[in-house]
Amino acid sequence: MARQIWKLTALQLCNLFNFNEFRYTKDKKKKGRYLAVGITWMILILLLLFYIIIMDNAYLIMGMPQIVPLLGAVLVSLVILFFAMFKAGSVIFQMKGYEMLSALPVSKTAVIVSRFLSMYVTNLFFSLLVMLPGIVLYGMYQEPGIDFYLLSLVGTILLPLLPMTLAVILGAVITGISARMKHKSLVSAALSMLVVLAVILFSFQADSMEGSIDEEMMRHLSELLMEQMRGIYPPAVWFTEGVTEGAYGMFFLFAAVSVGIFVLMAVILSRFFSQICTALQSHESGKTADISKLRENSVRKALYQKEWKRYLSSSIYVVNTALGDILMAVFGVAVFFADTEKLEETLQMPGIVAKVLPFMLAVMPAIMSTTSCTISMEGKQWWLVKSLPVRTKDVLDSKILVNLTIALPCYVIAEIFACLAIKTTFLGYVLLLLVPIVYILFISVAGLSANLAFPVFDWENETAVVKQGASVFITMLTGFATVGIPLVLLLLVRDAYRELFCIIIMILLMAVTALLYRRNVKTDFRRLG
Amino acid sequence: MLKIKNFSKTYKGNKRAVSNLNLEIEAGDIYGFIGHNGAGKTTTIKAVVGILDFEEGDILIDGISVKENPLKCKEILAYIPDNPDLPEYLTGIQYLNFMADIFKVSKEIRKERIGKYTALFEIEGVLGDLISSYSHGMKQKLAIIGALIHKPKLLVLDEPFVGLDPRASVVLKEMMHQMCEEGAAIFFSTHVLDVAEKLCNKAAIIKEGELVAAGTMQELTNGESLESVFMEVLGYGKTDMEADCAATV
Questions:
Q1: Does A304 lie in the same domain as A277?
Q2: CA of residue A477 relative to chain centroid, distance
């Protein structure tokens, strides 16, 4: 059994981050592409490491050593919960690969455990990345005994188990509920987004509690946060108290709960795996269609409808791309209800909200666009688009339209509330309306450009393109940079020139959008894939 | 209807898939394209239907160059790949309606053709289901109907009989004959030599990217079976093969 688990896990992990394809592909362009993705990943990892080291160092200097392992544990757990939830359906409960394996002399438990392990390894990597700098820095500042290092390491290894288990249960419940609905992917996406929004609101709430404390309480911030976390996620507190105070009982409780719940779920799953998979992926069949009701559409409309259906068919795709637009709307509403004048007073920067708000609204749709992986999402069906008598322009327009279909209603909501929330000049209102829409158009086109440059068609799992695709990273970084840099410069520019500065940025952005669009529509699909 | 002139295709890494290929398929022809795995059949077919670019030679469909005017060519041809990966998020009827929209088939004609073909292939009962729930054979049938919906002048198929049930194979062969009688041309690759021999009036054999034999079925076989001719032109002696197999077993 152990050998089977090892073999199956190794098989799944050998192509982790496309490493196996990178190693053996003879296609130099593909190799270069994987290398570029690898370098991007390395940069992101280094940035994350840098951020964690700065944060941990700050807490240690401020005399709050306990916060270092506590926040590390919370961060690891939240991130794993968020990402593993979407993977549960496609990795753990995927029937396709399981049917193939069940024809081989491999036990059901080996298949399930290997699936968990392959997920666990990537999560463990993240856990080590977040926790190790904290352990080293804590050790340097506090000079604890050897038991701290031992417990911290064991704890870091155990840390992903509980959020992974919870994520699988949540993912299964969401898949299970949505499988019974007519628009199952949409329902699944909506439920997933509700969970994500709940997590975000939750963390906002935690932030606001932090913000309301005075200097006196600052000294007791450590205890305050521990108490707060005890209510939110007790295992993180058990882990922290275990490693920092040598409370072995607490640590044992953390380890026992993590391992116990994980093992319990593995046992239940291996017993009812087939039934769960069937229940999750149930669908009706044998439906006839009324041919007499067929309607004639223009080529553009037909392409758009197909594109829209493709979009709604994937909950991972919807959640990862629509979230930015939804957050834009939520942010607009939040600004309306927030006390912006008080915020400006606190910051001693009158009128700052009106100045930065257009860019703040733009940042969220600018980092998540449906177009950044829309070509890759065609996958093995790419032959169909290539073989049809349709212009490249029509195909790409339909893909841009899908992004606009998601973004525009959110934009309208955000703008109505944002315009009501602030008092500014006529030009200020014009910029408030103009900036986000220019960014939405820009990222729709730039996302397409990125995906046309880095398309991936030979994927087995949508997660590979939606979450790990090079074009998605590039689009995200482009969005961050194109909003972030002007935003920083805006704060440096003298007050009198700020509106002019915004107008120049918008003209530049529109020019780049037009150039990229012209370049995109000249793409010869025959050379792609 | 289809003219392949000095067509060559070299992939990255200087891998030459097809070398200087010349073929001509006329209206009314059912033309079989035969070769072993990796001989260059699919590469040729993909270039013909305008989904693969190429630098050397030219391909003309009804006198129009695929290289220069792929859209015009695609309007009059239809292509069915060996493994029809169709949009699984659409229902069967949505896919067919989409194909009819793209090829600008009028409402009345699409209703009539969808009704006729789905009944022939016996899939009218599942047209409301998502394609993701279809078997390989059902997807193949749907791809065929989608390809025929605009009544193409040239039908290009890559291994069309793989995965089809016996009845659907018969229906497809009948349809191919009928299309040719109406003036269309059919160009298809196959490994099933018996089918090619019975169905095609012309055939070509390709080996390692080069054309080794082409002509009418009668000229090619000259009284022998197509299988014998195929083994002979590829340089395999049948008796040697039989001896090899016997020794291995």
A1: no
A2: 13
Q: What DSSP line would sit under A61-80, residue for residue?
A: HTT-TTHHHHHHHHHHHHHH
**Domain final residue pick, A252, A283, A314:** A283
Tell me the count of A-B CB pairs closer than 8 A. 116
The whole-chain average pLDDT of chain A stands at: 83
Reported as a single tens digit per residue, the pLDDT across A142-170 is: 888 888 899 999 999 999 999 988 888 88
Confirm whether A294 is domain-assigned. Answer: no
Whole-angstrom distance, CA of residue B195 vs CA of residue B184: 20
pLDDT at A43 over 60: yes
pLDDT per residue over B161-214, tens digit each? 888 889 999 999 999 999 999 999 999 998 888 888 888 999 999 988 899 888
3-state DSSP assignment of residue A314: coil
- Please tell me whether residues A135 and A235 are part of one structural domain: yes
User: Residue B197 in contact with residue B226, Cβ under 8 Å?
Assistant: yes
Q: Do A389 and B75 touch (CB under 8 A)?
A: yes
A342 at the B interface (CB within 8 A)? no
Report the chain B residue with the minimal C-alpha distance to residue A183. Answer: B89
Give the closest-approach CA distance of A84 to chain B in angstroms.
24
Chain A (19-58) residues lying within 8 Å, Cβ to Cβ, of chain B: 26-29
Residues A51 and A24 in one domain: yes
A309 touches chain B (CB under 8 A): yes
Contacts (Cβ under 8 Å, ≥6 apart) of A116: A92, A164, A266
Residue of A378, A383, A391, A457 for testing the chain B interface, max B β-carbons within 10 Å: A383
Within 8 A of A24 by CB-CB distance, chain B residues are none
| Residues facing residue B203 across a β-bridge | B32, B215
pTM for the model stands at 0.75
Four-CA torsion A307, A313, A315, A320, nearest 10 degrees: -10
At A355 the three-state DSSP class reads helix
Residue A293 lies in a domain: no
DSSP string, B211-227: EEEEEEHHHHHTTS-HH
First-to-last alpha carbon distance for chain B, in angstroms, is 47
A413: amino acid identity, one letter: I
Where in the sequence is the domain holding A177, given as residue range(s)?
A: 1-283
Closest residue to A388, CB basis, from B12, B74, B110: B74
Residue A106 φ/ψ, nearest 5 degrees: -125, 135
Q: CA–CA separation, A491 vs B93, rounded Å?
A: 56
Test A291 with B114 for CB contact under 8 angstroms: yes
Q: Which of B75, B84, B103, B73 has its CA nearest to residue B4? A: B73
Looking at residue B32, the DSSP 8-state letter turns out to be E
